[in-house]
Design brief:
Blueprint (H helix, E strand, L loop, with lengths): L1 H22 L11 E7 H11 L3 E7 L12 H9 L2 E4 L8 H8 L4 E4 L9 H5 L6 H13 L1 H7 L10 H18 L4 H26 L8 E3 L6 H7 L2 E3 L14 H14 L3 E5 L4 H11 L2 E6 L14 H15 L2
Parallel strand pairs: 1-2, 1-3, 3-4, 5-6, 7-8
Helix pairs in contact: 2-8, 3-4, 8-9, 9-13, 11-12
Length: 331
């Protein structure tokens, strides 16, 4: 009888193994599958990867040199969202296309807004910082009217929180906690990676302050092609004049009259250099700079990382490159 029972047990075991092999079901528990994670843009993706290490399968929707403001999702993006466990997004209406993509994909992934916990700057706060200059205010008011649709797309608050490394620390903590909640087995790794990355962000903050101290106070003005440096300016004592916003990827090419207005405004600012970015129209910026008699600094990395092999291929590298470029141009 014992032998009969043993025989039946062995036959059942063999049948179970055969079923597993034929059905493709893994004998390893589901928790050993890597967490499938989405990051909406390249800067956020790099931060997530540094915190997660090899414990996740990461998909970044808007890649290097990509402009999230004008991004058009693909069918592959919808598939990636449908299969994802966690989605990390910036929030503050930076990804205006994400809600529709999430709904249409049928995704049930947990959405984590990494800007939660950061005090947002209202766009008008740093638009109106320098209202003492009547001429500049009049010009800026004209610009706001000309680009009303662009302002609407940006929403009420400035979404570019990452340009202040202290805000990025808040983002790291949010990412760490969300990964640990979704994948408790690797909590220790997420916590250790986050601590190390925060230390690096603090070092970058110190480095930026050291570099800024070498720039004459009168020259701490950023004339930019996109209103992306509000948090940077607020943290490090700069004035931002996004007078070149009509040259960004979000706007149609300006008329001859608009270009003349830009030239006049730049000349009035007495800045030694103006700044373009890795997602702007460099040809038009060069034209405006030539007519205004100022130099165009090397492009800054703003809403996206650079391609592999460039100084901006990582977020930490991007921050250091940007301040080095700004410091050299404004001496």
């Amino acid at each position: 009888m014992v032998q009969n029972r043993l025989g039946r047990f062995r036959r059942l075991t063999a049948a179970l193994v055969l079923f597993v092999l034929m059905s493709g079901v893994s004998l390893v528990g589901a928790q050993d599958e890597p967490l499938k994670v989405i990051a909406t843009y390249s800067i956020l993706g790099d931060i997530v990867q540094n915190i997660a290490g090899d414990n996740i399968e990461l998909t970044v929707l808007v890649g290097p040199d990509g402009d999230s403001h004008v991004y058009e999702p693909t069918p592959q993006d919808a598939i990636a969202l449908a299969e994802a466990d966690v989605i990390f997004e910036n929030g503050l209406e930076f990804e205006t296309w994400l809600d529709d993509l999430y709904e249409s994909s049928g995704s049930t992934a947990t959405r984590i807004v990494v800007s939660d916990g950061i005090e947002p700057l209202a766009l008008e706060e740093h638009d109106d910082e320098h209202e003492g200059e009547e001429a500049h205010e009049d010009e800026h008011e004209h610009e706001e009217e000309a680009h009303e649709e662009e302002d609407h797309e940006h929403g009420e608050f400035d979404p570019h929180v990452w340009h202040d490394p202290n805000n990025s620390i808040v983002m790291v903590e949010s990412i760490r906690d969300a990964l640990a909640a979704a994948d408790p087995t690797n909590t220790v790794a997420y916590e250790a990676n986050a601590e190390a990355y925060i230390t690096e962000l603090e070092a970058v903050d110190d480095y930026i302050r050291e570099q800024v101290a070498t720039i004459p106070e009168a020259n701490r003005i950023l004339v930019t092609s996109h209103d992306t440096f509000g948090y940077f300016a607020d943290a490090y004592g700069f004035e931002v004049m996004p007078v070149l916003a009509s040259l960004s990827t979000e706007a149609a090419d300006p008329s001859a009259g608009e270009i003349a207005e830009l030239v006049t405004e730049i000349e009035a600012s007495s800045v030694p250099a103006i700044f373009t970015e890795n997602i702007s129209n460099p040809a038009l910026v060069e034209q405006v700079a030539s007519e205004a008699g100022v130099i165009v600094a090397p492009a800054l990395y703003t809403d996206a990382l650079g391609q592999p092999g460039t100084p901006g291929e990582t977020f930490l590298g991007m921050l250091r490159y940007n301040i080095d470029t700004i410091t050299e141009a404004l001496q």
